[in-house]
Amino acid sequence: MDDVNFHILIEKDDDLYSALCLELDVASQGETIPEAKQNIHEAIELYLESVIEADEEKDFIPRPAPKEEWLKYFEIESRRLKHLLARSAQGRFRMHEVVYG
Q1: Could you give the C-alpha distances from 59 to 16, 53, 63, 90, in angstroms and in order?
Q2: Would you say residue 82 has pLDDT above 80?
Q3: In this predicted structure, what is the pLDDT of residue 4?
Q4: How far, in Å, CA of 87 to CA of 89, rounded?
Q5: b/e per residue, 60-86, with b = 16+ CB within 10 A?
């Protein structure tokens, strides 16, 4: 069975960190980044369990977050990638293939 990868956007929001799963539009928060990560993981599991138990997969998986949130994620990811590539032009990399067709 293949792993499922979810894109998670974590942002500082006053005294908390908010976390949003972009593929499912599921959100959570935490007082620290690790807590926000743990909480979004649990929220995703609960969401998927409830959707599958209700036999509503076709309506709620995937259920993408708004386009603005995706754009924010990819802007941040682009800056991170630029920084990583600048540090090591000969660095190791992995490829995650996405096949359309």
Answers
A1: 31, 13, 8, 44
A2: yes
A3: 86
A4: 7
A5: eeeeebeeebbebbeeeeeeeeeeeee
Amino acid type, 58: K
Q: In the numeric block, which tokens belong to residue 64?
A: 């993408």
Domain annotation covers residue 98: no
Residue 30 lies inside a defined structural domain of this protein: yes
Number of domains in the chain: 1
Query: Over 40-60, what HEC string results?
Result: HHHHHHHHHHHHHHCCCHHHH
Q: Residue holding tokens 């941040």?
A: 76
pLDDT in tens, 9-48: 999 989 999 999 999 999 999 999 999 999 999 999 999 9
Q: How far apart (Å, rounded) are the C-alpha atoms in residues 88 and 72? A: 25
Q: Note the pTM of the prediction, 2 decimals.
A: 0.81
Identify whether 45 is part of a domain.
Answer: yes
- Contact at 8 Å (CB) between 6 and 21? yes
